[in-house]
Amino acid sequence: MVEAMGEEEKFDAIVVGAGPAGVAAAITMAKAGLQVVLIEKGSRPGAKNVMGGILYKHMLEEIVGPAWASAPVERPIIEEQRWLMTPDAALRFGHRNLRNRLDPHSFSVLRARFDPWFAEQAEAAGVFLINETLVSELIVNGGGVIGVKTGREDDLLADVVVVCEGIGLGSKLLQSAGLKAPVRPDQVAMAVKEVLKLDADRIEARFNCDHGEGATVECYGDATMGMAGFMFIYTNRDTLSVGGGALLKDFVDSGRSPNQLLEHFKAHPLITPLLEGAETVEFSAKMIPEAGYRGIPKLFGDGYLVCGDAAMLSNPVHREGSNLAMTSGRLAGETVIEAKARGDFSARSLASYRRRLEKSWVLPDMRKYDRAVPLLENNPRLLSLYPNLADRAVDEFLRVDGVSKWAKQKKIFKMFRREGGVRMVVDMAKALWTLK
């Protein structure tokens, strides 16, 4: 934490981080005529940003309007699959929605392509973008945030600072200013991702897609070696996004590395054929917030707001992050616009940001799935024992071997009583209660 120095140029708002949250906030404010500076630590937006790779049209359209149609998305998602995996099998659940051909609501994206386009929309709205600049500290004066220190010759000052960096740098900035508690290993996931080159025809054949259309495959259970998390494959135009993650605490306790997890997933006999002939062209890793509703830090204060990953906004049940980021950024921007009209950037004035999040779908969804990650963390049987029991039960029931279905059913019930018992009933009830 540093004190203000000198009489530097002052902006209406400084946005730290040019990811989905930061750009959404910057565009919203600039469209209202505010002077906004957007700071990106990478050589350009998208150079250092990582996400699984699914983007939702609705949230983007709320920010850029009809211009969303020019966004460099990869494939509209027509089919979504969930695989509950054992070492040599998988129970598959899916939804193929052909209505999405006419009006797709979700797309696969590559941040290296999407983020520069999104930032261009911000610059077109009047945002001043500064690349290759690392914000080292928030400048605090009289108990309120009044700007940022970047290591360059001059500090940058503003009426309000909107922190939209990832959970790493964003949390550190808030912690160093005394505005947020340190993040615990059970509150974040370590995620890894590879982009693998594969020609479009083979992608469409392997994932049962028509020309130009895409699918997602999300995997649980053995896919994460029983750790609390999930793995994924998302289809792009001529690449696959392959990755996933688990709680940082699980990596520490097990001694495994994120790369070991990724290689384990890629080596699964049901996954290997999907990746055959694909060549890795990119590897990345990042931390993802998994603290749930109760882990959300204070989202506002004198002269500052917090959005996206820095605000611990993530919904692991629906693998949602970018939409939470963009909506929180937009609502933060709207809050600043009103604060500017009042000439009041105090915590009392900016508290309307939290109220906006509560009235939207963001905090209600966070509250709904607050206990999802602890459920998996504290009940590893949900990702190991029970998938194996379900696999053996289905295999037994479908196997034609001269044994009557009555006898098979009796054998299956006995297996569940012996290996699952009352504990399984309790665990299933907890799971249903958590996801209700």
According to DSSP, the number of beta strands is 17
Evaluate the radius of gyration.
23 Å
> Helix count?
16
β-strand amount = 15-25%
On the 0 to 100 scale, the average pLDDT is: 91
Helix-strand category: alpha/beta
Oligomer: single chain
Overall morphology: globular
Helix content: 25-40%
Q: Major sheet: size, sense and barrel closure?
A: 8 strands, mixed
Low-confidence stretches: 1-7
Lay out the secondary structure.
Blueprint: E1 10-16, H1 20-31, E2 36-39, E3 54-56, H2 57-64, E4 77-86, E5 89-96, E6 106-108, H3 111-124, E7 128-130, E8 137-141, E9 144-149, E10 156-163, H4 167-176, E11 188-197, H5 200-206, E12 214-221, E13 229-235, E14 239-247, H6 248-254, H7 258-266, H8 272-275, E15 279-289, E16 300-301, E17 304-306, H9 322-342, H10 347-350, H11 352-359, H12 362-368, H13 372-378, H14 385-398, H15 405-419, H16 421-434
Describe this structure in words.
It contains 16 helices and 17 strands. The protein is an alpha/beta fold. Strands 1, 2, 7, 8, 9, 10, 16 and 17 form an eight-stranded mixed sheet that branches. Strands 5-4-12-13-14-11-15 form a seven-stranded mixed sheet. The longest helix is centred in the last third of the chain and has 21 residues, at 322-342. It is globular. The model is unreliable at 1-7 (pLDDT under 50).
